[in-house]
Design goal:
The chain has 460 residues and is mainly alpha-helical. 76% of the residues lie in helices and 3% in strands. The longest helix is centred in the C-terminal third of the chain and has 50 residues.
Length: 460
């Protein structure tokens, strides 16, 4: 009976996710406000329906009352967050709120499937982080002096990254965690935010040669510290962020071309110097020859994706726990196995929809500092998705980067929620500026009409 309910519900989930993914792009089409509201209401409804169906299957599978309690708590959380943002931030992006809740819902479902204890812990972290992030939109909107703190962003980021050399702990071969009693966090997840702020504040005004060299120095120091921590996935992300933001700020092709050359050289050196990089490259190039060793993780990931096929085996019907670190780095494989490749592809379209929304905000905001911030967060978000999905599908070597809002990890989900809250603030700035511009245009048009009437009267 459970097998029938699980597999049959997959088709309904895929259908809903496909409609939701399509709505990520149709909301940008010009239409009446009432129709836009209906679209966003439908998105919100899909979040609740998806949550209820999945947790019903999980309850039948585990027969644990904690699963029901967790589902109810998460439904209340989603409704509460959407209501709070809609009440206090009337000009915020409801589209972004819906996408946040949808991806969190997918993450909560998959974590509850893999480990109920981790799902409860992740939910608690998300609730606390969401409450703290409520202040970020209005803070970003009101604090115009943020662009003046460029050196603070750069120095604070370097110091925070370097703390792992004093109180750091090693995890999965990288010394990029710090532990303070029961609290453990990954500094690089938060420093990437200050890193983007630093570059945006530095390049907001036309940079001089001296300023550019100092910016390059600070960027190189960030990347170097991550390399020394053996967090090569993080180092790669920071490097790409720096190159693209410099290109967007200056429009000079020397940055992407120089970045390509320097990046290729750095990758070659990393391969020669670090044994774990060699192991990952070997596991990527020919995992079948070392299937019982370093290639076990990627081969199990490919087995899971292949076993799930287009429509999936059904929630609780697969064997995702065979994949090492499946709840964080390889959660996309678990989604593909049990919910199907169609569902997984729709998730990717949701991520692309968020990226398009971020880029739209960057194009709409007038201030160059906020424009660069929005571009930086757009690149950071999409490239992180690329690194994760590319690693689990053997498109690129695994980098140990998590899937935003879905993977298990307190540091990752907190930093992503902060980024989304900052983007809400930038959206409100863009929305306010656009309204003022529209009002000025209307005033100019009305004044022009008055002038034309006055001219006509004088001619008479």
């Amino acid at each position: 009976m459970l097998h029938f309910i699980s597999t049959s519900s997959n088709y309904l989930l895929m259908f809903m996710c496909a409609i939701y993914a399509l709505s990520c792009f149709t909301v940008f089409l010009p239409s009446k406000e009432s129709r836009q509201i209906r679209r966003m209401d439908r998105q919100e409804g899909f979040v609740y329906i998806f949550q209820i169906i999945c947790f019903l299957v999980l309850t039948l599978h585990t027969k644990d009352p904690k699963v029901i309690a967790l589902c109810v708590g998460q439904l209340i959380y989603f409704k509460l967050m959407i209501t709070i943002y809609g009440h206090f931030y009337t000009d915020c992006s409801r589209i972004l709120m819906n996408h946040t809740c949808f991806l969190l819902s997918v993450g909560f479902v998959m974590l509850a499937r893999l480990s109920l204890e981790k799902a409860i812990k992740q939910f608690a972290i998300v609730v606390v982080a969401s409450m703290l992030c409520l202040i970020f939109p209005i803070f970003v909107k009101k604090a115009f002096w943020l662009k003046k703190l460029r050196w603070l962003y750069g120095l604070a980021g370097l110091i925070f990254l370097a703390t792992v050399f004093i109180i750091g702990t090693t995890k999965n071969g990288s010394t990029n965690w710090i532990s303070l009693g029961p609290l453990a966090l990954q500094p690089s997840e938060f420093v990437k935010i200050s890193f983007i702020f630093f570059i945006a504040a530095t390049l907001a005004n036309p940079p001089k040669i001296r300023t550019m060299w100092i910016t390059i120095l600070f960027g190189a120091l960030h990347v170097l510290i991550l390399v020394l921590e053996r967090d090569l996935g993080g180092a790669f992300l920071y490097f790409v962020l720096f190159v693209f933001m410099c290109f967007v700020a200056t429009g000079r092709l020397i940055y992407p071309l120089g970045g390509l050359v320097c990046g290729s050289g750095a990758a070659f050196l990393a391969y020669k110097l670090f044994s774990h990089v060699q192991a990952r490259v070997l596991a990527w190039s020919d995992p079948w020859s070392i299937i019982e060793g370093k290639g076990y993780q990627i081969t199990q990931s490919l087995f899971a994706i292949g076993t799930g096929g287009w429509f999936g085996m059904g929630l609780t019907q697969g064997r995702p726990t065979d994949i090492p670190v499946v709840d964080s780095d390889f959660i996309f494989s678990a989604i593909s196995e049990e919910l199907g490749m169609v569902f997984a592809i729709c998730i990717l379209f949701v991520y692309i929809g968020i990226f398009v929304h971020f880029i739209t905000i960057a194009m709409d905001v007038k201030d160059k500092f906020y424009k660069l911030l929005a571009f930086g967060f757009s690149i950071c978000f999409l490239f992180q998705v690329f690194l994760t999905v590319g690693g689990v599908t053997k498109f690129i070597p695994s980098t140990g980067v998590t899937l935003p809002l879905i993977s298990y990890g307190g540091s990752s989900v907190c930093s992503t929620l902060i980024i989304f809250a900052i983007m809400q603030g930038i959206f409100m700035i863009a929305y306010e500026t656009k309204e003022e511009y529209d009002e000025e245009e209307e005033t100019a048009e009305s004044m022009g009409s008055v002038d034309r009437i006055a001219i006509g009267d004088s001619e008479e």
